[in-house]
Design goal:
3 domains; Rossmann fold; D-amino Acid Aminotransferase, Chain A, domain 1; 19 strands; single chain; 31% helix; elongated
Length: 401
């Protein structure tokens, strides 16, 4: 399970769809989009790019009419911004109608191993973290459901409208595949009494993509501020969305020397940490993860995409295949497509003298590890293989930079 953030616009839009209402505000990524604003309304404007502290960074415009909104956006849209030591360009903003209100509330849901934790406070807004003693929390066991009685007994909520909002948000959180959902704050329009979600943070479980097709539809998963998704990253993400397996790809630095494909999420972390412990963290090109019993077609495409990207780098020197126990994964499938993909790129491997380091444990290793090494030798490719008798990350000691 990987947590992926989504835009506030999309989180709110899907929520209102879930309660059969329309979310009617807009995303702005071009100054021309201002024409969509109503000249008789006032607005709240803010970046919608998966980072927080927008208010404290001076990035929230409040109570602006159409002309004021245009002037405010001209100063912000397309400009550079540093957030937590990361520089990026402010290129997507959310515009919502300004809502007069008096009372603000905080609610969040967070998934855990054994329970979902619900946090509630009657003192919402930006300072809730520094006033956490105002927050009450309860755990709802994973296979159980939040009940209205929980809200009345644990949070002392008597207001039926607040109870209704929280129950709607809980159902949305559970039904749409969220692992984290925070509304800080929500309030009620002081004239109409309608629910207003002033600020929302949402993270989804990306392994729910197939299950959630009817809910997520064409939902976009944008990169965080300062990170641009490369074509190879986008292609692997699209493959990942179409299969029940886990295919992850993140480029750290395309100029570095060590390239890895690691199976199983925890193994990928162990291999990556060990590379850092050997003082090669600044040579690690990527974070790749392959798990969940992928089929031949998708994994072959995955590996070809990997090699296509790898051979664009002038400094690639090592290609590491790391596998641990995978008793439901057929090594004939996984190593079969490795051999096929390496054959497609054998000229590049030889010309660049890229060394292949392999460590795989358990089922059928006595067949496929020698076969992979033998095939590489036939192609004139340098390949070192470690068996299950070797400690998992010993193969990394072969790296010499």
């Amino acid at each position: 399970m990987a947590q992926v953030g989504i835009r506030e616009f999309d989180a709110k839009r899907m929520f209102f769809e879930s309660i059969w209402k329309k979310y009617k505000w807009i995303l702005i990524d071009d100054i021309k989009d201002v024409k969509k604003l109503d000249k008789d309304k006032s607005y709240v404007l803010k970046p919608d790019m998966l980072f927080g502290w927008r208010w404290k960074l001076g990035l929230v415009g409040v109570g602006l009419d159409k002309k004021e909104s245009e002037k405010w956006l001209e100063k912000k849209l397309g400009k550079k911004q540093e957030v937590s030591w990361v520089d990026g360009t402010l290129d997507v903003f959310l515009a919502e109608e300004f809502t007069p209100h008096t009372k603000e509330y905080y609610i969040s849901f967070q998934a855990g191993r054994d329970a979902d934790t619900v946090h509630f406070s009657e003192a919402g807004w930006v300072e809730v973290e520094s006033n956490w003693d105002s927050v009450t929390s309860i755990d709802i066991p994973t296979m159980e459901d939040l009940k209205e009685s929980d809200l009345k007994e644990s949070f002392w909520i008597a207001h039926k409208d607040i109870i209704e909002v929280i129950m709607d948000l809980w159902k949305y959180y559970k039904d749409y595949g969220f692992v984290y959902l925070e509304v800080n704050p929500f309030c009620f329009h002081q004239e109409t009494g309608d629910i207003v979600l002033l600020d929302m943070v949402a993270k989804l479980d990306d392994q729910e993509h197939f299950k959630q097709q009817n809910h997520w539809k064409d939902l976009v998963f944008p990169p965080t501020l300062g990170f641009k998704e490369e074509p190879s990253e986008r292609h692997i993400r699209e493959l990942d969305e179409k299969t029940g397996a886990s295919m992850k790809h993140k480029i750290l630095n395309p100029e570095w020397s060590i390239w890895t494909i690691i199976a199983w999420g925890w193994a990928s972390l162990v291999f990556t940490d060990t590379i850092g412990a050997l003082w090669y963290a600044d040579e690690l090109w990527n974070y790749w993860e392959l798990a969940g019993g992928p089929d031949f077609e998708n994994t072959y495409e995955y590996t070809k995409t990997f090699f296509s990207q790898m051979f664009k780098s002038p400094n690639a020197k090592y290609f590491i295949i790391g596998w641990v126990i995978a008793n439901f994964t057929n090594i004939a499938t996984t190593f079969g497509w490795f051999v096929a993909a390496i054959k497609d790129f054998q000229d590049e491997f030889r010309d660049r003298d890229i060394k292949i380091l392999v460590r795989r444990w358990w089922i059928q290793e006595e067949i496929w590890l020698p076969l992979l090494k033998s095939e590489c030798e036939k192609m004139g490719i340098n390949c070192t293989v470690a068996w299950s008798s070797d400690y998992m990350t010993n193969i990394l000691k072969e790296i010499k930079l």
